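Title: Comparing notes on inverse folding

I've been comparing how different people in this forum approach sequence design from structure. To keep things fair, I'm posting one structure and asking everyone to reply with a full sequence. Here's the target:
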């Protein structure tokens, strides 16, 4: 396994970004439509097709997910992914009509130093198409795709991924775009809140501090008193090869949100737009109660790891006043 979302057979991931704009798009493509749902916990989300993903609505499966920077402008990215799929005849069929189903979510990166004077139309539709066209079973982590312009309270954010295998052979994987109002590290040190769940040295192997001080436990917020709900979001996609119904996918997304709380402090705030998509490719049956519970617990751990890996892999933006990366600060 590569410790990536693409450890799920039939899933491909592609990035497209613009260093001048300091923003980008990540496309997650499913070879066959995947049963999917969503859980939204942040107070300032920006999503596309959220209602479609509700368990009581008709369409059960999706063709792709688009994650983007650009705040509300970035919702155009899903249209680019949709266009790429439509050219290939992939989508939900109603007689002769083919409609690619592409939910999406965005994060705010408009004040990170990049040039956002893009003219009449923002670049995200084209970036979405390019991200879909670049999709493969291997992809980069860090300051790429939708994670290019991401930041946290005190360090450069980024895009991370991780995967895991249950005892009965079911795979679960996560991809996270970390643009949180909170911090993923303890105090001003190198320790990740997600350290108890680290596998090997996938995000530096620093563990937790030997003891906690009151200062370490203070909430550190991006922007301080000027923080805005529009400026922060962590976007997560969880995919499994288990067979799930749409309500079960919703429950998986809900349990997986726990991983954000294990990796970011604080999280699910009025100042965040935190979203988890959960999708299932359906290759392996599981017990509908205990199997789903075990899968959800492992998914939450995997989300925490993906978040930490995103920040650990990030590189600082080349602009005056840009936040340092974890590697810049801690080596």
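Reply #1:
Here's my take.
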């Amino acid at each position: 396994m590569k410790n990536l979302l693409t450890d799920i057979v039939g899933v491909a991931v592609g990035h497209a970004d613009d260093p001048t704009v300091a923003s980008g798009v990540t496309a997650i493509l499913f070879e066959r439509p995947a049963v999917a749902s969503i859980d939204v916990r942040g107070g300032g989300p920006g999503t596309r097709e959220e209602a479609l993903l509700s368990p009581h609505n008709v369409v059960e499966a999706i063709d792709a997910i688009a994650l983007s920077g650009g705040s509300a402008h970035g919702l155009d990215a899903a249209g680019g992914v949709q266009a790429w799929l439509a050219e290939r005849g992939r989508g939900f069929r109603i007689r002769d009509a083919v409609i690619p189903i592409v939910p999406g979510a965005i994060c705010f990166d408009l004040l990170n130093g990049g040039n956002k004077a893009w003219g009449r139309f923002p670049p995200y539709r084209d970036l979405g198409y390019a991200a879909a066209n670049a999709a493969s079973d291997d992809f980069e982590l860090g300051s790429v795709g939708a994670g290019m312009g991401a930041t946290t309270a005190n360090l450069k954010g980024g895009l991370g991924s991780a995967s895991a295998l249950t005892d009965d052979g079911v795979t679960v994987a996560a991809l996270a775009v970390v643009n949180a109002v909170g911090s993923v590290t303890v105090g001003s040190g190198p320790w990740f809140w997600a350290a108890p769940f680290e596998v090997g040295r996938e995000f530096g192997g620093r563990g937790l501090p030997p003891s906690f001080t009151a200062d370490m436990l203070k909430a550190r917020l991006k922007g301080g008193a000027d923080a805005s709900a529009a400026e922060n979001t962590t976007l997560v996609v969880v995919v499994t090869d288990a067979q799930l119904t749409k309500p079960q996918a919703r429950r998986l997304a809900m349990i997986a949100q726990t991983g954000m709380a294990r990796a970011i402090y604080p999280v699910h705030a009025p100042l965040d737009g935190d979203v988890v998509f959960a999708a299932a490719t359906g290759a392996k049956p599981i017990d509908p109660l205990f199997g789903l519970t075990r899968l959800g617990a492992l998914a939450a751990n995997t989300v925490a790891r993906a978040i930490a890996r995103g920040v650990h892999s990030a590189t600082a933006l080349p602009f005056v006043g840009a936040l340092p990366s974890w590697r810049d600060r801690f080596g």
